[in-house]
Design goal:
Number of strands: 8
Strand order of the largest sheet: 1-2-4-3-5-6-7-8
Radius of gyration: 17 Å
Distance between the termini: 37 Å
Largest sheet: 8 strands, mixed
Structural class: alpha/beta
């Protein structure tokens, strides 16, 4: 499946598996749903696993682009759950995806069985500066040039050449207008109130060598969501599901098992 028509509009998605409590994956600002291919294969063996393209990315429509981008992105994700007839899902978001996961929970907490917030934050203290640099880089270098200069900051060093190549190729394909809109949605986010209101089971995950979202931001998120678990993935930068997939998948599987099989 490449896309689905929803009440929000057309959304690109990949689905593997069926049954169980579904698991929804939300990608980062420089990515697309294909970044979750390994996780779809792993978790699609036991449940419905879904990865979507953010508005304007991949096979998704741009959408009207009105108001708060975070809210609109979250509405697009909820519309996918509606179209798939999913009442509740575990939601796993990385970076921008984590920001959208918090927005989704704020919109419809009853639809969220649990949250996995990977390499993300409620508010980034350098967000405005990062946004300015990102947009300037995209304008001067183009998406391919920006991707090549950005990749080494995203990944722990020395990076696996295949992972680096995939990151650059994926980011190079992003529509510049969609990238600008998503970058504003993530880097200008201030969801401290939304994070503090989270009541569902939550896991915060971060790469030990993440230079984009330093570990202290995950620790700040933990202070806002005291009941959340907090796990470091050693040897990973900002993209632990690609850099250390076996460890990331094991951490996620253990968390889901604990949520679904409580003591």
């Amino acid at each position: 499946m490449q896309s689905i028509e929803t009440s929000w509009g057309r959304v690109g998605l990949s689905v593997q598996g069926s049954g169980g409590v579904p698991l929804l994956f939300l990608h980062g600002v420089g990515s697309e749903r294909g970044a979750w291919a390994g996780q779809l294969e792993r978790f699609g063996a036991e449940r419905m696993a879904v990865a979507i393209d953010m508005p304007g990315y991949g096979d998704s429509e741009m959408g009207p682009g009105e108001g708060d981008g975070r809210t609109e992105f979250a509405r697009a994700a909820l519309a996918v759950l509606d179209a798939l007839e999913v009442e509740r899902a575990h939601v796993c978001g990385l970076s921008l995806g984590g920001v959208i996961a918090l927005a989704l929970h704020a919109l419809a907490p009853e639809r969220v069985a649990s949250l996995v917030l990977a390499d993300t934050f409620a508010r980034h203290p350098e967000g405005a500066a990062i946004l300015e640099r990102s947009l300037a880089g995209a304008a001067s270098l183009g998406m391919a040039g920006l991707a090549d200069t950005r990749a080494d900051a995203l990944l722990a060093q020395p990076a696996d050449p295949g992972v680096r190549r995939a990151v650059v190729e994926t980011m190079s394909r992003i529509d510049p207008a969609a990238y600008a809109r998503a970058a504003e949605a993530v880097w200008l986010a201030d969801q401290r109130r939304e994070a503090a209101a989270v009541s569902c089971p939550t896991l915060i995950v971060y790469g030990s060598e993440d230079r984009i979202t330093p570990p202290e931001l995950s620790e700040d998120l933990k202070l806002l969501i005291p009941h959340a678990g907090l796990i470091e993935i050693a040897g990973a930068g900002h993209l632990p599901n690609l850099e250390q997939p076996a460890i990331f998948d094991r951490v996620l599987a253990t968390f889901l098992w604990g949520v679904e099989q409580p003591d």
